[in-house]
Design goal:
Bound molecules: flavin-adenine dinucleotide
Helix content: 25-40%
CATH superfamily of the largest domain: FAD/NAD(P)-binding domain
Order of helices and strands: EHEHHHEEEEEHEHEEHHHEEEEEHEEEHH
Shape: globular
Distance between the termini: 23 Å
Structural class: alpha/beta
Radius of gyration: 22 Å
Number of domains: 2
Number of helices: 12
CATH architecture of the largest domain: 3-Layer(bba) Sandwich
Length: about 400
């Protein structure tokens, strides 16, 4: 069985960036997964879908120049500020991959087992190989969080936003969408536009909308509220410009910033597609759900500014836009013994300053590293720092072994 120095699992923005950086350092590696598959699936579900982040904040990273999202979009007459279409981002990722990482092997990794610096990988086509280093770059895939209240419903009646493969398939149906974050709000708008009758169920007392920031602003405004890959304001700017800084904070402080920074809300361009167009039930928590005659009966707890009540709502489907739960136990392709050996931060993997887990040679980059590194790593914007950190470590290890 061949032994390779590095295997990268996942060919999204993080995996592609790391491969480009390793190639620049002439570090031998293989990268597995269908390029940009997550984003292709999002675009394929249909409707007008846009990135929440700015064009300049959604770059896939390579040491070569000429491969930013704007380098792709500008000459093609596409948006180079915001909102950028997700379809265009898929095009950018595929263009980036073909130019920088044409050696991607479009096959999933089915299983990883083994010991430090000697990992055995089995691919979905049955091929086996060994790798000294494995880098997990699978994004949010497998981490969808569905409220317990919905878990007893049949799959045809309840879904997570990430599972929707076609919004038009809900045409003419009554759908309850749970959540007040970008995914829930966007799903509700897309359902409405696809001919469904969505209602939004929002636990908070209101929906939080991000405000539009002008591209050209006075020096004073830019200094007072600088824009960055993570949005506008000094906190976002600091998180985006000092990507390694949060790693050094105590766990509790980092968790607090994480919680306060990533509060649910919607992009400004979604607002007109929701407000006054569909029912938004605020202060509403789904406590239970049951199936009756092929429909879903939801038991709702209503908190109307302190006035509590319970009522039922019957719909054809319920969709959970309730985010993601990064949990080592949900990395199902990792052998159970391997999962057991990985130290956690809450349920997420704890990684060191070079994105390495407590299993030497097993790295995690992207959203799954965000509990150790901060909110930037939930976004594409974190892929440059992560790729540089991991490739530098692998280069110095190889030098030490030479
Ligand atoms: C609806 C939605 C909108 C978002 N909008 C934005 C945005 O506007 N801007 C932003 O920066 N971030 C956004 N995000 C967050 C986004 O998921 C991450 O920023 C980004 O995808 C991280 O890149 P990645 O490479 O880690 O993950 P991904 O892009 O998800 O790539 C990981 C890849 O790994 C593959 N994979 C999974 N398991 C395996 C396996 N076993 N073997 C091989 N391959 C595997 C997957 O198919 C996937 O293609 C959004 C997320 C969602 C859900």
């Amino acid at each position: 069985m061949s032994v390779i120095p590095v295997a990268i699992i996942g060919a999204g923005p993080y995996g592609l960036s790391l491969a480009a950086h390793l190639a620049a350092l002439k570090i031998e590696h293989r990268i597995f997964g269908r390029p940009m598959q997550f984003w292709s699936n999002v675009a394929a579900a249909g409707g007008d879908r846009f990135l929440r982040t700015y064009c300049f904040g959604t770059n896939i990273s390579t040491p070569r120049s000429g491969f930013t999202f704007a380098d792709y979009s500008g000459p093609r007459g596409l948006e180079t500020f915001e909102p950028c279409s997700i379809g265009d981002f898929v095009g950018y990722g595929q263009w980036f991959q073909q130019a920088n990482v044409p050696w991607v092997e479009p096959v999933d990794v089915a299983q990883v087992s083994g010991a430090p610096h000697c990992y055995k990988l089995r691919l979905a086509d049955g091929t086996e190989l060994r790798a000294e280093h494995v880098v997990v770059a699978i994004g949010l895939n497998g981490f969808a969080h569905v409220p317990v209240a919905l878990t007893s419903l049949a799959p045809g009646l309840a879904a997570h936003t990430s599972e929707i493969s076609s919004f038009t398939s809900f045409k003419g149906r009554e759908v309850a969408v749970i959540g007040a974050g970008q995914s829930a709000l966007e799903a509700a708008a897309l359902l409405l536009e696809a001919g469904a009758q969505p209602s939004l169920l929002v636990r908070e007392q209101s929906v939080d909308w991000m405000s539009r920031v002008a591209q050209k602003r006075s020096l004073w405004r830019r200094l007072r509220s600088p824009i960055s890959a993570l949005g506008s304001g000094p906190v976002a700017w600091t998180l985006a410009h000092f990507p390694g800084a949060m790693y050094h904070l105590p766990d509790a402080a980092r968790a607090r910033i994480f919680k306060n920074y990533l509060t649910p809300g919607g992009a400004w361009w979604l607002r007109d597609r929701i407000e006054n167009r569909l029912p938004v039930h605020v202060g509403t928590t789904v406590e239970g759900a049951r199936e009756t005659n092929g429909r879903v009966v939801l038991r709702l707890h209503i908190d109307n500014a302190g006035d509590q009540s319970v009522r039922e709502m019957t719909v054809d489907h319920v969709i959970a836009g309730t985010g993601y739960d990064i949990d080592v136990e949900r990395l199902s392709f990792l052998d159970p013994d391997l999962r057991k050996s990985i130290q956690r931060l809450g349920r997420a993997p704890r990684v060191n300053a070079r994105f390495e887990t407590s299993m030497p040679g097993l790295h995690v980059i992207g959203p799954a590293s965000a509990m150790s590194f901060g909110p930037l790593f939930r976004f594409v914007a974190g892929c440059e720092y992560a790729s540089q950190a991991v490739s530098a470590q692998l280069a110095s290890r190889r030098k030490a072994m030479a």
